[in-house]
Design brief:
Blueprint (H helix, E strand, L loop, with lengths): L2 H14 L1 H38 L4 E6 L21 H6 L6 E16 L2 E10 L3 H5 L3 E4 L13 E4 L1 H8 L8 E4 L2 E9 L4 E2 L2 E2 L3 E5 H8 L6 E6 L5 H15 L6 E5 H44 L1 H9 L4 H37 L9 H27 L3 H5 L3
Parallel strand pairs: 3-10, 5-7
Antiparallel strand pairs: 1-11, 1-12, 2-3, 2-6, 2-11, 4-7, 5-10, 6-7, 8-9
Keywords: Cell membrane, Membrane, Transmembrane, Transmembrane helix
Membrane topology: Multi-pass membrane protein
Main location: membrane
Length: about 400
């Protein structure tokens, strides 16, 4: 029998038993849709974390005071009393040719008020370099002016939520606010950017580093953010930062450098494993679909014994009968897989509209893998019914036995 005749025969057989075919198509479609949707969710989670870290800035290194293993909990829980980082340490890092920007930070909390309105806010002492390092965007006004970090004007850039709480719909640029017992003039307002690694940028007030040192009575830096010139220079920059600060701290390795690439690599590995695990769990539904195909096709063999006997009486060898049933199983599997993919893409589209901030997406490898597994599942579980049909005795089959 020619290959086109084989496919035509299989298609007519499937059309002749619409209810049975629809049941098998539904089982395969549900299995494929489950695999693709759960894989898309895992991929979306990986992209979401990647975007969150990208919002921090590109080619970023974070320098922390203290060197050591952590003892559990959110990093870094440093043992002992580390030597503090200073503004001179931060300025020394600019000597490296692989460093583009250095942004020293001091973080604290203080009441921020305007007239009778007051709000507790996070105060960030920084320099003009924080804007490009953290990829911050301004809705109005300007950022901290460049200049000597040891001498800063009494100016502030505030978050959108803090502006709304203190000024409402009234303009804030040029107005004076009070942070603790100091007065600052508002020169800029950040665009709404939500939270970034636990810090609500809308409730933030950014002031010059020297002013924050005076406000909180400290010379110690909370962190130093360093941006490398390119992604390829991140490793060299990490070594340079470690060497410069080791020299400045009397030969002691008392700082920790966390690279953005290392964090992203770790999260990528975690979510890749999670995606594969979830996809594997969902693949169990494909096995269930395959078992259903096998059972329904075994019933089909018993119902089509006379047809099989006629084919064998006309000279069709056992291998031809085997191929006919395997083609039926393959057609059911591929068609069910395509229906499942269409259903999965419909689900992805719906979730994309319901949760626009979550970058859900189907990785191409998941589609190829789902189609291949569906085809293999259908053929694997179709072998037993096909072999049973091929072994039927033509005389007994024609008599309906």
């Amino acid at each position: 029998m020619h290959i086109t005749d084989t496919f035509g025969f299989a298609i007519r057989a499937l059309r002749g038993a619409r209810a049975r075919s629809a049941l098998m198509l539904l089982a395969m479609a549900i299995g494929i849709a489950s695999v693709v949707l759960l894989t898309a969710l895992g991929e979306g989670a990986r992209r979401y974390v990647g975007n969150e870290f990208s919002n921090l800035g590109t080619h970023l290194l974070v320098v922390l005071p203290g060197r050591t293993e952590t003892t559990g909990g959110p990093p870094p829980l440093i043992g002992g009393t580390p030597k503090p980082l200073t503004l001179d340490d931060a300025l020394a890092l600019t000597r490296s040719t692989t460093v583009r920007y250095v942004a020293p930070l001091i973080v604290g909390s203080a009441p921020v008020s305007h007239r009778q309105l007051e709000r507790e806010a996070t105060i960030l002492g920084a320099t003009a370099e924080l804007l490009p390092v953290r990829n911050l965007e301004l809705a109005r006004g300007k950022f901290l002016p460049p200049g000597d970090p040891e001498r800063g004007a009494a100016v502030a850039v505030i978050g959108s939520a803090l502006k709304q709480n203190l000024f409402g719909n009234a303009p804030a640029l040029g107005r004076w606010i009070r942070i603790h017992d100091r007065r600052f003039r508002v020169i800029g307002i950040l665009k709404p950017m939500g939270e970034s690694l636990g810090m609500d940028l809308g409730e933030l007030a950014i002031i010059p580093l020297s002013r924050s040192q005076s406000l909180f009575d400290t010379e110690s830096l909370f962190r130093i953010l360093v941006q490398a010139t390119t992604r390829e220079h991140v490793a060299r920059t990490e070594r340079a930062v470690s060497e410069i600060l080791k020299t400045r701290h009397g030969g002691e390795e008392d700082i920790t450098v966390i690279t953005q690439n290392a964090l992203l690599g770790t999260f990528d590995e975690i979510f890749r494993t999670l995606t594969l695990a979830v996809g594997g769990i969902a693949a169990i539904s494909l096995a269930v679909a395959g078992i259903l195909i096998m059972n329904v096709m075994l019933v089909a063999v018993s119902q089509r014994t006379a047809e099989i006997g006629l084919l064998k009486a006309l000279g069709a060898p056992g291998g031809e009968i085997l191929r006919l049933f395997l083609v039926e199983a393959g057609l059911l599997s591929v068609t069910g897989a395509l229906l499942g993919m269409a259903t999965a893409y419909g689900g992805v589209w719906a979730m994309g509209h319901l949760f626009p901030d979550f970058p859900i997406g189907v990785p191409p490898w998941a589609l190829a893998a789902a189609l291949l597994v569906a085809l293999l599942t259908g053929l694997l579980f179709g072998v037993l019914p096909a072999r049973r049909a091929a072994r039927l005795d033509p005389v007994r089959a024609l008599s309906g036995h």
